[in-house]
């Protein structure tokens, strides 16, 4: 199945954030200018590695760094043989959990751990609201900002609105849980590509919760609501968008990994992130040498 980073909707989203996007043979190539050095080329989970296309884009945009996050070990080996180096960290999660949504609702719930099922049962009375318009997303973000520490990253309002515009209607879902006084105590953001692109994967994109939200276990209800939404919309897979990977250890991921694992699913592992640094005219020089031989 197509990764969301290779969808037309995601290409539209990155364009709205100032990236140049070249789409060739249904593969997205993301280019970011870094004056005065040149540009960075980023390719994330493409269906295949097309080195000739990469060469052409490097010449066209004066690329000094290429970043590729391959889907398969075969592609990773090809990159390594082409001079790419494996980084010690990744941009996309290198390991994730996925749930098969073709199962019945009862089968999916049965695969959850006991504590997750109990938390969902306990949270049946929690008020959960969907946010979709720009004004509503502004409220959603304010609740997000008020729920987390100052050091925690929260996307800009403009970024969240553009995400919603790029993934409209049933292609994104902003949910928030509330306490009895109506204050937001937790939230979750889900995305899925256009159903016309044969993707059918819903992603648990981002989430937040405050102390009160954690005490009421409302994050379980939010996630369960997102899973049911994905299934209702015909998605085949629910992707948790990242769990802890000992190959690229980040201890801050251990807590939410434990939470995500309580929902069952199966692990999916990716090779990591590969990069190549070069002078902006390297590809052009190689081309001229090849032609003169």
Describe the structure.
The chain is α+β, with helices and mostly antiparallel strands. It has 2 domains: 4-91 and 271-292, Aminopeptidase (3-Layer(aba) Sandwich), CATH 3.40.630; 95-269, Gcn5-related N-acetyltransferase (GNAT) (Aminopeptidase). Helices cover 37% and strands 26% of the residues. It has helices at 8-16, 51-61, 73-81, 105-110, 114-122, 134-147, 157-166, 211-215, 218-232, 254-261, 282-292, and strands spanning 20-24, 27-34, 38-44, 63-69, 85-86, 95-100, 127-131, 172-178, 184-192, 201-209, 237-239, 266-269, 274-277. Strand 1 (20-24) and strand 2 (27-34) form a beta hairpin. The longest helix has 15 residues, at 218-232. The chain starts with 7 loop residues before the first helix and ends with a helix.
Strand order of the largest sheet: 7-8-9-10-11-6-12
Q: For this structure, what is the CATH homologous superfamily of the largest domain?
A: Gcn5-related N-acetyltransferase (GNAT)
Number of domains: 2
Rounded to an integer, what's the Rg over CA atoms? 21 Å
Q: Provide the low-confidence segments as ranges.
A: 287-293
The fraction of residues in strands falls at 25-35%
CATH topological fold name of the largest domain: Aminopeptidase
The shape, in one word, is: globular
Give the helix proportion (percent range): 25-40%
State the CATH class of the largest domain. Alpha Beta
Structural class: alpha+beta
Following the backbone from N to C, one meets helices and strands in this order, namely HEEEHEHEEHHEHHEEEHHEHEEH
The main β sheet shows up as: 7 strands, mixed
The separation of the N and C termini measures 42 Å
Q: What is the strand tally?
A: 13
- Number of helical elements: 11
Q: What is the CATH architecture term of the largest domain?
A: 3-Layer(aba) Sandwich
Q: What number is the mean pLDDT?
A: 93
